[in-house]
Amino acid sequence: MRTFSRLRNFILLLLVVPFLPACNAGARELLTRVRPVLRGGQMDSSSLMASMKRLEENGLQVQEIQKLAAQHQWSNESVASLINLLNDKKFGAVDKSSKLAYAKHAKIPLKNKPRVAMFMHSLERNGANNFCLHLIRKLMGSQAFTVIFAPKEGPMRQDFEVLGLSVDIVDPSSKDFLVNLEQKIVEGGVGMVFANTIMRCDVVNLSHKLGLPTVWVIHEAWPQDQLDYYAKEVFMMKSLSSEMIKEAFSKCGCVVFPSNVQKDIYKGLYRPNAALTVYNGIPLTQLDAFRLSHDRNAVRKALGYGPEDFVVLHLGTICNRKGQIYTAQACADLVEKKHCKDLKCLMVGARYIRDHEIKYIDQIKETARASGLQYARWEDTPEEERGQAKITLMDIQADVLRFYMAADVVLVPSLNEVLPLVICEAMAFERPVVCSAIDAIPEAVDDGVEGILVPPADAASLSDAIFKLYQDPELRRKLGKAGRQRVLRQFSYDAMIARYGEVMDELIEDNLESKGPSVGDEPPQTSASSSNMAPLRMVGGWTVPPLNLKGTAETSACQVENPSKIAGRTILVDMDNTVVDWDGMFIKRYGRAIGADEARQKEIESKVRSREHFEIEHNFEEQERAKVMDVIASPGFFAELEPLPGAIEALKEMVDRGVDVRLVTAPHPVCPGPCANEKYDFLLRHFGSEWIDRMIITRDKTHVVGAALIDDKPAVTGSAASPPWNHVLFDQPYNRGVEGKSRLRDWVKWEEILSDALKL
Fold first, then answer.
1. 574 is catalytic
2. Which residues form the signal peptide (predicted)?
3. Prediction pTM value
């Protein structure tokens, strides 16, 4: 009985904590960390009970966690710290109190955090830069990322600008580079630096000079005696030197490596207490949504490959260190000597910028021609001829998920690599991988378990490994399944994000303790130099211009140019079928799930769009309801919802005109954790990070205070008999039998309807 009680309480924690009003963001992190384990099925009841037992052996009860979360109103960072405490295998009674103290202490309001500048080595689309984009997307609600600095233009500028960040191009080759950069940092009120890749050693040295806390992420694995060669010859960074790199290592207070092997490569250059390992995580929401929503045969057909083709994928910038020449040689051997006539090789990642890369592409062409293999460049091939060549090269692509889905085997025969994301992404797609046994790759792939490891620069071994997989479909399936489990177990995206947030908070706290007021104190104001300029604020010794808080609850009616009649009032707004077209997503996914033809699809749309019952499943036959629930719980369902016409524009207008808008939404009971997580993703994409604090996720809206609640549900009920708001119906077919309530049929008329409902 006691075992059942503990299990019940643990599950209760997972389901209930996200709806505590004070900590929904932090609990969302907690839930999404645990979600893959529960939903993925790899934690059975006995494993769950073992985790509970370890938890209690360490002196913590589940009830204590619930009480702490509610009592201290923990923020996102605080709950992330608690997650680390729960998951830390080395956790014991000795350090329990210090970890709990950190969890309690980590609550620093976003407005009191320093502005963060991200320094990148380019704006090209590659693994290192995608890491920055993913990190910022997830941390914008808890860290004050403000500006991106890069040495040259690139296609990723728009990705960051969509997030509301400014992008500033600075030329490291200029003789005044550091002087100009220092001026930009000071004038921009930057209080913290996040430097990405070893090539930003120049920025790390400048940051140290300015006394700014710095996180430096090293993606490369350059031998210490070849730092000059890699900087100047391989990456063409003539302004860098081994002396600059070594100086940066010696001065930086936080150096992050994505693998232990790589950390060992630079041992002796950094201070021991300044280095740590954080594995790069994989964001699975979009990846899994793609897997669910696309047919593999259709994806292959679009690339020119048929069901009988054996597709070997090599994804990554085509250059010497990625080893594509060995892929070409191995494929030539497989076709000529092992008679793999249906083998097709696709190399994605060609660019024609650097001379040594162009020469390398020419070598690949020559290898193919010398072996009598047909070679083609995708972009130069007529559509009807695509996929016919034995070796196809394609330029660098922004969207790469389709290639994983099309592939039978993914190759990573690199000569110099740390731990490329392509390995984890391939495994997440359940594709077997063949990789060089170098650097940190063996930390991600066990030979014969998730893939096959081969010596670097060994085309014969590479050919043998591919041939082994070519001959054995069951082995491919087995390795692919194991790879997926490895990703869920070791490369949790939420774990990575939480750890980086924790690292940044630790640096901020250290600076606050050494330079300024304690956490929670109001920062003293300094006088502005102009009446038109908002006052600067002091944060732990930094003089920081105020963040752009337009649209937060702090905006009052007197601060807006054209205040609404309802300015100053709080308006609560539901999301599903009120702000977003929930029905549209369901219609599309349900039809796909049952393989509906055009006529059946129209029937589904008619049934859903004109339905009588609010609960979607009640409009279907009993035997169809399980499939309905599966569709709702499918990955990406809530993240990919489309806004209703005029909804987002209306809500932003309301805020601009002094209305305090709060999005109050209930997670679907069939998938509360993923639903809550994906709704935050939707919010960031369509509203921006400044709306994070406007989101309230709860199953009971009757305790949320506001003047009005705009909601499509016919009757919004809960534990409070008399809710503190006036229910305004957002018009839908299933609520048209309700009388006596104001009704909003078009977002254009929001002010008129709300004014009437509130009798203004």
1. yes
2. 1-25
3. 0.50
